[in-house]
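Quick start: what a row looks like.
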Amino acid sequence: MNTISIIGAGIGGLTLGNVLKQHLNDFTIYESAQEIKPVGAGIMMAVNAMQVFDRLGLKEKIEKAGNKIHRITIANESLKPISKTEILALEKKYNSCNVAIHRAELQRILVENIGSEHIQLGHSLLKIEKKENYALTFENEIQKESRIIFGTDGIKSQIRNQIFKTGTIRNSGQKCWRGLVDFNLPEKYHQEAFEVWGKGKRFGFVKISEKKVYWYACINEKSFDPHITIADIFNDFDPLILNLIGATAKGDIICNVITDLTPIPQWYTDNLCMIGDAAHATTPNMGQGACQAIEDAYIIGRLLEKNNDFNAVFEEFQKIRRKKVDYIVHTSRSIGKVSQWQRGNSLRNFLMSLIPESINQKMAKKIVELEI
């Protein structure tokens, strides 16, 4: 019998594995994929996540594999900045900076540090039942028993659906393409995350390594013809954006509907706890989805330093994390709506430009500060 089982080897599950390994806990991670292969696009590890990786001894590795980002800029269609958030002061204070990285690179670093002996691939959870312990049945017909369960299996979590029977996935009404391309970005964009707000649509890009640029393009689903191309949709944006789209191979573009999870009352029950998207999936508008899962794993680790009663840790964990997570889910949803207004854009951009940088700094600080 396993003492601890982690269901899902996404960023949250792998970070939790690294945390438990640091605490010398015995655990197994079960992942539905047959192999952890280089899929997905870019991801931004914000200062809060990088502080956690620093404590796990992984900060330098991640910085080396990705690209340091010192500024977040929102601009109009002709790339004229509306709002900037410089994070150098926060970097200094927390001895960490934002890092844009290929999701697969980040996963590789996390897996290497855990050791593949802790990870069982090709194990897609079919059924979980609470008996004296937890009985796990996988689609490959393998059965396991485990005393402690962590649900790190994402927004469509089987753990949440079968054990808690709660949580509604909300459609934001926005559709997002994400692309990866080898591209020579002008040097002035090398150390910043750049997002362009238009009418009912936006486009963001960031350099994630020596040659690669990650970009995303979001639209309001109901207002666009599904038969026209991404380039057609963004033809009123600066040529740099059209060049990024044009240089990207079709196979390097993925498309998803943006969703989140209605807040659920409880993330834990007897000897079982959900973290990350399984518990509190958020829209990507603040770049905090994976970062919040990383923070969850860190807080669980900190609580286990003081107490080895998992149920007491789970209760305390939710108490500590609830307020920040609810704030991020709510704020991110609101930003998504405002950033894709169909009309009133020049007024929105003007009001955004009036927000002093100190307010942006304050909001950034609230997000990147770890609770304990």
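That is the whole record. The first helix runs from residue 11 to 22. The mean pLDDT is 95.
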